[in-house]
Amino acid sequence: MATDLGTSTTAPTPPATRATTPGWRDPRLWVGLLIVAVSVVAGARLLSAADDTVPVWSVATDMGAGDEVGADDLVAVRVRFADASALGGYFTADDELPADLVLTRGVGAGELLPRAAVGSAADGDTLQVPLAVDTEQVPGSVRAGSVVDVYLVASTVAQTGDPRPTGARLRGGPALSAVTVVDAPPLQESFGATGKRQLVLAVAEPDASRFFRLLGASESPVITVVRRG
After folding, report:
1. Can you name the residues that pair with 180 across neighbouring β-strands?
2. Measured distance CA(107)–CA(134) in Å, rounded
3. Which DSSP letter does residue 162 get?
């Protein structure tokens, strides 16, 4: 049998397969859309659950009784309350604050502004209490607007009957806490000859009454002023 060596043979080329866009009836398309929708809903619920905080006003710096509270004194912080009813005791950032708002007690820097700690300037019961303090018992940086604590240190008398004080004992805790200095004249303008400095403090009336009771019950008390902040 003769063979034709001059003729080459090639395998037939398979037809090209073209990618086709899945139609609306393709179940894979519907499964994909369902997965995307479920992911979006789940993500939205997760973010909503994670951000259940409320913007609440907090105090930017230490403030004392009698201080007027304005927008410049406050900072909005987001807080999550475990008990939703507790929110009613504070001012949210959406609340409109009264124009004549004043503190009835001291509030520290970063503390939330409680509704129970404020009142109206028109019906406030704050008194201006003057003190004469030895210059070494009050920081030189204390001035009008400073927030201070006032301590009473009662002198003790020797058992030998010597009337000269031999030491001092501190009456537990400050006699006045977080009160605002209304006026603080320089030493040369107050009692320079006696070595004492005058301070005028804004004190809530009940606290002022308590302070004077402590002052009257102390024997030769030494008044010490400590500045906050």
Report:
1. 147, 202
2. 27
3. -
Nearest to 177 by CA among 73, 123, 107, 117: 107
Residue 75 in 3-state DSSP?
strand
- Rg (Cα) of the chain, in Å, rounded? 38
What are 225's two structure tokens? Answer: 């002023």
The residue length of the chain stands at 229
- What pTM value is reported for the model? 0.52
What are the pLDDT digits (tens) for 119-175?
Answer: 776 655 778 899 999 989 999 888 887 889 999 987 654 344 444 444 444 556 899
Long-range contacts of 110-116 (CB under 8 A, 24+ apart): 110/58, 110/59, 111/58, 111/59, 112/56, 112/57, 112/58, 112/59, 112/77, 112/79, 113/56, 113/57, 113/58, 113/59, 113/69, 113/74, 114/89, 114/90, 115/88, 115/89, 115/90, 115/91, 116/89
Which residue from 110, 111, 79 is spatially nearest to 93, judged by alpha carbons?
79
